[in-house]
Amino acid sequence: MTSINRTREPILKLKDLVIKFNLRGKTLTAIRSASLELYKGESLAIVGESGSGKSVLTKSCMGLLDANGWIDSGEIIYKGYDMSTYKVEKDWLKIRGKEIAMVFQDPMTSLNPLKTIGKQVQETLELHQKYLNKGDAKTATYDLLTSVGIDNPEKRYKQYPHEFSGGMRQRIVIAIAVACRPEILICDEPTTALDVTIQAQIIELLESLQRVYDLTIIYITHDLGVVAHVADRVAVMYAGEIVEVGTADEIFYEPIHPYTNALLSSLPQLGVKGEVLSAIKGTPPNLFKTIKGDAFAPRNPNALKVDFLHEPPMVQVSPTHKAKTWLLDPRAPKVPISENVIRLKNEWGSSE
Amino acid sequence: MSERKKLLEVKNISVVFGSRKKAFTAVDDVSFDIYEGETFGLVGESGSGKTTIGRAIIRINAITSGEIIFEDERISGKIDKKKDKKVVQDIQMIFQDPMSSLNERAKVDYIVSEGLYNLKNYANDAERKKIVDEALLEVGLLPEFSSRFPHEFSGGQRQRIGIARSLVMQPKFIIADEPISALDVSIRAQVLNLMNRLKKDLGLTYLFIAHDLSIVRFITDRVGVIHKGRLVELAETEELYNNPLHPYTRSLLSAIPMPNPNYEKSRKVIFYDPDQHHYDIEAPKWVEIKKGHFILANQPEIDTYKTMLESNIKGE
Ligand SMILES: Nc1ncnc2c1ncn2[C@@H]1O[C@H](COP(=O)(O)OP(=O)(O)OP(=O)(O)O)[C@@H](O)[C@H]1O
Ligand SMILES: Nc1ncnc2c1ncn2[C@@H]1O[C@H](COP(=O)(O)OP(=O)(O)OP(=O)(O)O)[C@@H](O)[C@H]1O
Ligand SMILES: [Mg+2]
Ligand SMILES: [Mg+2]
Asked: How far from B290 is each of B182, B294, B316, CA to CA, in Å?
């Protein structure tokens, strides 16, 4: 883990980003004014509701939005350049893979089913490195496969994606992503398909790559155990917005936003077998409609009146911690913290 | 406990891919029973054959040896049309890959209804639509979504379409292969609650395959641990988590990340080396080392595990 140097300029900065999609004539707002900073060498985890925009937000940083989507307003500043103004593929080709690489949620969509695994890994290696001959490139491919935990690389080289298990396919995708030696690696559910021992190895691999190359990593994951393990900082998303950002300790032990509290309360580790797990009631807001007030209010049993009327401000509570909620307003009443979150804090938070 | 009815019996099944020189045994002599109304978990490393076992049960993958019994009838190998139809209706599988398991060209309404169309077990289209809408709501999706295409959804939303699709069939037995891996914590909780409710209300039985061992601990009654196509340990869930004996199981449990940054700073993973067994000297067998607790071990190992169990009891 790296310490967060506040005085440093962020390597990537999203400013008031708004992303929309056109769906058969109707407009869906997937990202509603999101701002986020990423510092060199850190691990930032993005967590949040399914459909809240984690993948869309990060894909937009690589020019990978689906054809029916666009950046409506806001900026994506990478090393001083505003990438949100990039219009043509050619601009993005300079970024994609070389500067920012991505490991996707679903390995099958990022592998070509008709090409052998070896070919696919080797092609990426050859794209980014010059090899004297095919033999060298092949050896480098074997090494890379071994480094992501694929046994018997000579045999595996010749196999096709369908001959691999879900978990092994994801390891190949990770191999391809790190082959490019990027500055920023975005890992969208990188270990979801992996068993915990391989997950531990992959995370260790990512952490060591991070140390060696001073890699900056964004982890998107629903596994809060993984978040607790890897993240220096955590950003929490809900309905296209970033509702809370803080260090891992701040998010786990001092959560502020009602959504963050509800999220932590739903952890299966806090459940009692045979009993109902705490879960957030209702469904996320319809993104085709304009959202009034705090987007989470309709599902928040302790919502304040103001939550339904006015958009809450983002309030800084420590140099590293901020949350977008009316609860931080001096006029707000004290809202009881959920029992589960108190348990998290008492049982785990003070063990140092 | 002993009078519980067996819903599914997997007897010494093997699945071999390829032939002769390139033959690869993905599932190797695996046996387990699933009792009516229970949730049986299958955990193990990636590539160990969990999905293959699920696919063998619903007859997508042919088994090379052994047999599979469902409600006292053999459903593996050659079976007649009537039995095949029963398997199709009674056993549903929620597939692991939410991205590649949905028909990209079909709207959600069709995808969820597909099984219903095949069985035609509804009176009219309005009733079918009602079934679909209810299933979507059950998994936390809006009925309005039914006119959209799969690629217009997030990963977790797609996974839930797959769950809705199997729910409408009102099966007796669901094979849930990583059914909630792509879901956020709260919807995960919602789906787990839903699964438990259906289990209580309708007596549903599950084979639950997952990598998230915290979820497995919460949802399952018994768990089997599989390594490279072989079952290595099987026990009631709490027994397994409290008294893991096989070194592979111990390694797996040590690797569970907890949502606790302080704990994560010091967690150590136990490494598992398959060579530690010396099975070349004495081959292992599948033994019941304690009531309901099975393990793959040879005699010297059985002795060690017995000592471990005794010291665990003393330690309590
Ligand atoms: N091509 C598209 N057309 C229309 N809507 C889209 C498209 N891609 C994504 N969306 C919508 O944008 C929103 C954000 O999707 P995104 O994939 O970023 O969610 P996510 O936070 O990554 O969710 P998950 O955790 O389930 O992966 C969702 O409501 C989704 O339905
Ligand atoms: N159609 C196939 N042809 C050849 N080999 C296959 C086929 N399907 C699976 N395999 C192999 O069988 C083994 C078991 O695969 P399976 O998908 O059952 O693993 P799994 O336990 O479900 O893994 P994961 O946790 O990664 O999903 C793997 O080595 C895989 O490569
Ligand atoms: Mg996503
Ligand atoms: Mg599988």
From this structure: 36, 7, 17
